[in-house]
């Protein structure tokens, strides 16, 4: 009997755990280690952040699901990986520290045969002084953050109702942020809420982003084939901003936030300030703090992890200019180099480089959206790791690993622009592949599958995905029929 | 270095949707057709790209 340890129970880790259980049954032990007791459908946090959905509708407790499925669940965080074992035992191990209130602070060393690192992001609010719920801005990165964001938004709406003009800023809190799509969704949901409240005319709504152009979304934008013409996501999103009267400030690196003032540098190297009454700024992501040791206890963290804290996998990490980036640079098996039993999936793997063109200001400040690897790609990676592990346990260690490169897989991105079954809208986009492949496609992506539409149907799609993925994550009957 | 007020992007050349387009975006019947079409596209993409 083998033991598979999965660090993290987000989209990627949870998907891996459910598929491993489905594929392996009770012949092997599957252990999930997550510091959180609840699963969160993060894409719907933006609705919690504007008060259109309650927190309880975007989360559910993990323990009952794992108990029902026969998966060993430890509410704990991974602290260290010992891929060569330790002085007492050559079997690889991972050190965990419990966050379960009854066992808080207790540590344990779990031996594993296979390890899946799906630890997700560390929200690095500390990268920008004054950023985040402990500073002067709000966030929608967690359900609790979103609840707080809504409370502050309500206070601003009350001031607007009292006739006091307010400036609301939504965007990215650092030059290297990712998840611009979430900020895009939130700004238009805020706009929608202000209109519903009848106070839009007194509000200045600003989208402050590290993207050099609207519609970049951290994926270098998209080219759509629409009605016989090629159009860009930049033109398409610019239209929405103009229609809604949302101002856009592009190519920014926020370096400090004081009470009511955001300080940022723009791509031309100029420094600016922007007054605000309400600000939701996404933090930059880093890898969760995991260390690695060899059998003698020597620190090998730098060998296994990139400086960003994300785990190195089968990608080409050799530094090269943007013009030389290739689809093949991206990993396909998510196996850690030198180990045939360690996978890193979802946000936990170190991307070889950005997807968007990275830029520097004349002052040397990097303004480069990080590649998104959430949602559909995260789920696909989790399933791929599960298939590889199950294949090896059933057919032998030499069984080739399954592959799922982001330069081959597609993604649907449905960016809400307001709620309501008849009044809602969303920008519904599909792209194939996520990472452009200019060798296979002249525009980098499959023109037939890369499309964007705006309308009420997009809201229905987002709502459908909300219910479908929560159903799937609860592992209710037929869950495996719902694709990642 | 002194800080100056933020410079807002000029979106005056971005195309504005016509009233017909805005109505079509909220038309329940038309949007239902698009909903079905978008779902089929996702499924096709899953079949094509998630190998």
What can you tell me about this protein's structure?
The complex is a heterodimer of chains A (484) and B (51). The longest helix of chain A is centred in the last third of the chain and has 20 residues, at 376-395. Chain A has 484 residues and is an alpha/beta fold. Helix content of chain A is 24%, strand content 26%. Chain A has 9 helices and 26 strands. Chain A has helices spanning 11-24, 45-48, 62-69, 143-161, 180-196, 233-244, 301-304, 376-395, 456-473; strands at residues 3-7, 29-34, 38-40, 59-61, 72-82, 93-98, 107-111, 114-117, 121-123, 166-172, 203-208, 223-226, 229-232, 247-249, 252-258, 261-266, 271-275, 278-282, 285-287, 291-292, 342-344, 359-360, 366-367, 411-418, 425-431, 451-455. Chain B is built from 2 helices and 1 strand; from the N terminus they run βαα. The mean pLDDT of chain B is 87. In chain B, 16% of the residues are buried. Helix content of chain B is 59%, strand content 4%. Chain B has helices spanning 19-26, 28-49; one strand at 4-5. Chain B starts with a strand and ends with a helix. Chain B has a domain at 19-49. Chain B is mostly helical and 51 residues long. Classes of the chains: A alpha/beta (484), B mainly alpha (51).
């Amino acid at each position: 009997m083998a033991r598979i340890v999965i660090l993290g129970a987000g989209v990627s880790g949870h998907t891996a755990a459910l598929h491993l259980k489905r594929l392996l049954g009770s012949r092997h032990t599957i252990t999930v280690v997550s510091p959180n007791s609840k699963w969160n459908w993060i894409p719907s946090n933006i609705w919690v952040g504007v008060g259109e959905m309650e927190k309880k509708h975007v989360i559910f407790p993990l323990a009952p699901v794992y108990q029902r499925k026969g998966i060993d669940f430890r509410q704990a965080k991974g602290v260290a990986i010992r891929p060569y074992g330790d002085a007492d035992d050559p079997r690889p191990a991972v050190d965990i520290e419990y966050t379960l209130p009854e066992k808080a602070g207790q540590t344990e060393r779990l031996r594993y045969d296979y390890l899946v690192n799906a630890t997700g992001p560390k929200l690095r609010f500390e990268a920008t002084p004054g950023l985040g719920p402990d500073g002067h801005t709000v966030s929608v990165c967690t359900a609790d953050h979103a609840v707080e964001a809504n409370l502050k938004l309500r206070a601003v709406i009350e001031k607007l109702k009292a006739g006091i003009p307010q400036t609301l800023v939504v965007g990215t809190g650092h030059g290297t942020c990712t998840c611009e799509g979430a900020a895009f969704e939130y700004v238009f949901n805020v706009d929608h809420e202000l209109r519903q409240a009848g106070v839009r005319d007194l509000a200045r709504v600003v989208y402050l982003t590290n993207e050099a152009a609207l519609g970049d979304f951290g994926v270098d934008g998209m080219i759509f084939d629409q009605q016989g013409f090629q159009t860009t996501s930049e033109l398409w999103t610019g239209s929405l901003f103009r229609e809604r009267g949302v101002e856009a400030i592009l190519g920014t690196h926020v370096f400090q936030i004081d009470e009511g003032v955001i300080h940022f540098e723009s791509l031309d190297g100029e420094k600016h300030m922007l007054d605000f009454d309400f600000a939701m700024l996404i933090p930059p992501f880093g890898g969760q703090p995991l260390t690695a040791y060899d059998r003698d206890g020597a620190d090998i963290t730098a060998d296994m992890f990139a400086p960003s804290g994300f785990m190195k996998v089968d990608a080409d990490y050799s530094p090269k200019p943007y013009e030389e980036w290739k689809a093949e640079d991206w990993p396909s098996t998510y196996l850690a180099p030198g180990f045939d039993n360690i996978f890193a999936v979802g946000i936990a793997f170190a991307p070889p480089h950005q997807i968007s063109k990275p830029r520097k200001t004349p002052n040397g400040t990097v303004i480069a959206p990080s590649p998104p690897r959430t949602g559909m790609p995260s789920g696909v990676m989790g399933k791929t790791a599960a298939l590889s592990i199950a294949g090896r346990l059933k057919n032998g260690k030499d069984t080739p690993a399954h592959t799922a490169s982001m330069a081959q897989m597609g993604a649907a991105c449905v960016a809400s622009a307001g709620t309501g079954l008849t009044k809602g809208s969303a920008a519904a986009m599909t792209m194939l592949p996520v990472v452009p492949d200019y060798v296979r496609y002249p525009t980098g992506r499959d023109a037939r599958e890369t499309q964007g539409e705006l309308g009420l149907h997009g809201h229905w799609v987002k709502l459908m995905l909300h219910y479908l993925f929560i159903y799937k994550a609860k592992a209710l009957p037929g869950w495996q029929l719902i694709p990642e | 270095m002194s800080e100056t007020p933020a410079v807002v992007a000029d979106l005056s050349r971005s195309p504005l949707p016509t009233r017909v387009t805005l109505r079509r975006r909220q038309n329940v019947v038309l949007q239902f057709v698009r909903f079905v079409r978008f779902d089929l596209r996702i499924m096709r993409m899953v079949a094509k790209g998630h190998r």
